[in-house]
From TrEMBL:
Gene Ontology cellular component terms for the protein in this record: cytoplasm
Domain GST N-terminal: 1-80
The protein, known as: Glutathione S-transferase N-terminal domain-containing protein
Family matches, as Pfam families: GST_C, GST_N_3
Residue ranges of the TM segments: none
Origin superkingdom: Bacteria
């Protein structure tokens, strides 16, 4: 029986899982979730009710995107992504989760989820993190190693999300290393391969494989 991945195409956390799975060469049964209509099969095993969820076996359930990535790549890592998952990466990953993503959310979802905040203040705060990434990219195509690896693919889905809020404004920013880094990711075969559209999964559907 193949592992089962509950996913949502546009969720950056779920993108991480699909990127690692595709890079590893593994095959999983993919169950596309509509966030406003989450399947009971997922909720019954993962009450946190967020994607991704990877059901490896009855005894092994992975509910966090980084756990999914590390588990899959720990089994097979043909492109040596995990070589960038080192002590040097910790400040970038901590900054991503503790600082950039909260600021991104306040910028992107200011009208929907927050009262009386100025999204442009949070846009500028988030941009400061991207400037740090831009400096890291000055010496190569990856943040830690010379080519993109684990850390890059952990961060890229969220940079993509930020860039899409105001695309013209983003394109005007002085990020000479980061914008090509993002562009090559978005135009590359790996990203294109994980963005296949799947119909919403319902109990009893024929399996679809990713």
């Amino acid at each position: 029986m193949s592992p089962v991945l509950y996913s949502f195409r546009r969720c950056p956390y779920a993108m991480r899982a699909r990127l690692a799975i595709k890079s590893s060469g593994f095959s999983v049964e993919i169950r596309e979730v509509v966030l406003r209509d989450k399947p009971q099969a997922m909720l019954s095993i993962s009450p946190k009710a967020t994607v991704p969820v990877l059901v490896v076996s009855p005894d092994l359930l992975l509910e966090e995107s980084l756990d999914v990535m590390r588990y899959i790549l720990g089994k097979h890592d043909p492109q040596s992504w995990l070589s960038s998952d080192t002590e040097k990466a910790k400040p970038l990953l901590e900054g991503l989760h503790a600082f950039f993503i909260p600021e991104l959310n306040k910028y992107k979802y200011a009208k929907r989820d927050y009262d009386n905040i100025d999204p442009l203040i949070h846009r500028e705060k988030a941009l400061s993190y991207l400037r740090e990434l831009d400096q890291k990219l000055a010496n190569g195509r990856g943040l830690i190693t010379k080519e993109k690896g684990f850390v890059d693919y952990v961060i890229l889905p969220f940079v993509r999300q930020f860039s899409m809020v105001e695309q013209a404004w983003f394109n005007d920013q002085d990020l000479p290393n980061l914008r090509p880094w993002l562009k090559t990711f978005l135009e590359g075969d790996l990203f294109q391969s994980i963005m296949t559209k799947y119909s919403q999964w319902h109990e009893g559907d024929e399996p679809q494989f990713f």
